[in-house]
């Protein structure tokens, strides 16, 4: 009980202090912010055995969170910066990621030379890869995003613990380099992460590429992920294309996903987007979450999704989303295990359909 209560007691103590500093300006540059997003979602055939689900989900369209960030001018163009960000379940009030500040927690310096930060931070795959997801549109990933086909594996681990991240923007080009210490006794290599990427944005055109790798804690192999994508804005529309891949050297399992989509600002308040995703897996693919991994083998899946997002105000939006995914072969096991907890091993193909209605508020 003490482990459960302690983070909440700390959060309860931090919030009034952060709120006071924001309203009274006791500490210039300190900001409290957050997003609350919830949705009602119906999903058919969730487990591959024709069992449906109706649920209230947190982070329907972008994950719910609260955070504190600060920026202190040190003079000479240099600044001290920090950010603490917690994931929150808006459906049940629980903290996400089994940590108080599980989304981000870092401190560092920035200036004309770039920024250098230390802590729990997003890798280059996350910062660059999501920029070209057609359904992201700057809001962030959402609860049933088709990029989760195959078990949410294409952004590596999203965030790196014990990490050092360097970022710099030079005109239209932004680069990131990241390193995470493995902190495994007796080894400088096991458990380490290493990656980087570049994002180019000039006028209506954007292009990005990123790579990250992680050494297994036991030294058995390396997991490598990459992403490449682009976008082009024209009139009220913006087109996206992208490709992501993953290879696990220990098992020689290989995964990939390709996608294309379009966003369109129909009115000042109404934004529409839609996309198609193609996923495939090869090699010695197995389940992710079973105590004893179950071999699955090759397979593929297709998914389509559409989103209508309506702004009631600058900070409050309502949205409707619909998606359908069809998995075949070994992809059935990955798909059903991720969403239902248990892989459907006796099904050659399965189709999952979902509809979601919700709202989000930024503060």
Automatic annotation (TrEMBL):
Q: What domain of life does the native source organism fall in?
A: Bacteria
Subcellular location(s) of the protein: Cell outer membrane
**Keyword Lipoprotein in annotation:** no
Does this entry carry the keyword rRNA processing? no
Q: Which GO terms of the molecular function aspect are on file? A: porin activity
Tell me which Gene Ontology terms the entry assigns under biological process: monoatomic ion transmembrane transport
Q: Which interval of the chain is the signal sequence?
A: 1-26
**Porin domain residues:** 17-328
Query: What topology does it adopt in the membrane?
Result: Multi-pass membrane protein
This protein's assembly is summarised as: Homotrimer.
Protein name listed in UniProt: Porin
Organism, as annotated: Cupriavidus cauae
